[in-house]
Amino acid sequence: MTSNGILGREDVLGVILAGGQSRRFGTDKAVAQLDGRRLIERVVARARPQTGSLAVSGRDYGLGLPVIGDTRPSEGPLTGVLSALQWADDAGFPAIATFSCDAPFCPLGLVARLAKHLPPALVCGFVSAQGIRHPVFALWRTSALARLQRIYAAGTRSLMAAQDRIGAVAVPFACGPAPAGDMFFNINRQDDQALAQAWLDAC
Asked: Are the CB atoms for 15 and 84 separated by under 8 Å?
């Protein structure tokens, strides 16, 4: 961590959230192919250089990375975030950066920008791009863990609601190289997979 409180690369455990059911896609979308590579492999390639270490929340995809199991019954991405924060705190990381396993175009400067715009007094910064909030793409201080556990125990399951309750900051991101300029384009359906492949073919 720098003298002005900005988190550095080595302070951050990158966590790829891959514990969803992929109901809209029909099969596990993390292993869906995009230009010959699994989606999760593409996210790993973008997340690894931005973080001090990298792990997967959910299940083992044979990536040679630590796998963080859920510490409570899975009820959406907040469950994965809580488990990852506990794991990171135990490992001595002051922060985690969360990535979605189905967003293969996320920017390489994601973590650095979130860290730059996360005030020392706040525990979370999340992405806002093209007027859309992306709560899964966020930087979380591990000091948020106890407060998030209390919020969860009180019944909150929405990641967005949890961020609002702990006082998170929105960090704006511009357009970039991705379908329709949306670097946080996520592949929820097979139509999205086809659109992403068509964009790559046209590049």
From this structure: yes
Q: What is the pLDDT of residues 170-193, one digit of tens each?
A: 999 999 999 999 999 999 889 999
- Can you name the residues that pair with 170 across neighbouring β-strands? 126
What's the pLDDT tens digit per position in 80-95?
Answer: 999 999 999 999 999 9
Residues 37 and 61: beta-carbon distance below 8 Å: no
Sort strands 37-38 and 67-68 into parallel, antiparallel or unpaired.
unpaired
Q: How many domains does the chain have?
A: 1
pTM beyond 0.85: the answer is yes
* Alpha helices per DSSP H over 24-144: 39-47, 77-91, 110-116
Cβ proximity of 179 and 199 under 8 Å: yes
Q: Report the relative pairing of strands 95-100 and 12-17 from DSSP bridges.
A: parallel
Q: Is residue 131 domain-resident?
A: yes
Q: Which domain holds residue 135?
A: 9-202
- In this structure, is residue 1 part of a structural domain? no
We report the CATH number of the domain holding residue 150 as 3.90.550.10
> What CA–CA distance (Å, rounded) separates 13 from 55?
7
Q: Answer whether residue 21 shows pLDDT above 60.
A: no
User: Is 25 contained in some domain?
Assistant: yes
Assess if residue 3 is contained within a domain. no
Across the range 119-129, mean pLDDT stands at 96
